[in-house]
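**Protein fold record**
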Amino acid sequence: MLDSDLAKLYHVETKRINEAVKNNMEKFPERFSWKLTEEESKMFLVEIFDQKNIETRGGRYRCPRVFTEQGVAMLATILKSKVATQVSIRIMDAFVAMRKYISTNLIEQKYINDIVLKDSKRIDLLEDAFSSFKEKNNHIFFEGQIYDAYALMLKIFDKAKMSIIIIDNYIDKNILDILSKTNIKVTLV
């Protein structure tokens, strides 16, 4: 969380948050709180948000201090007010809820990843099957494509030497009659 966001929550000025940290630096190792560099500040704050909406800290823009969950908890031990105590409790509850949400989503994501890995072998088999159709100069038609089915089927039957595999959800009697007059093995799928 940014120092300015915490200041709003605690109903104090941002400089009071930074003074509290400055006066207790031993309680704020870098893993608890740090200042963003100018580059980070510009990249994450100035470009994402309207610069006018960012607190200028005395008339000019300064790099904000960032607090981790542990930094917020440590700040709560320094700021002594009822508002600070109540806000700190709510912030800690928010961090706990966020961890729970992330943890649940990671478990769900792992489940989805396991399914994808399991099905990836099946997908590879399908891709291999479809690529073999292309290699053999076979024809695949998808719903909505316009083509002259009978003329094309006759061309395909003429080229067939031993067998034909037909994958279709509908085949009409005329096609079956044509196929029955050939010496070609027909497999309907």
Q: What stands out?
A: The chain has two domains: 3-106, 139-188.
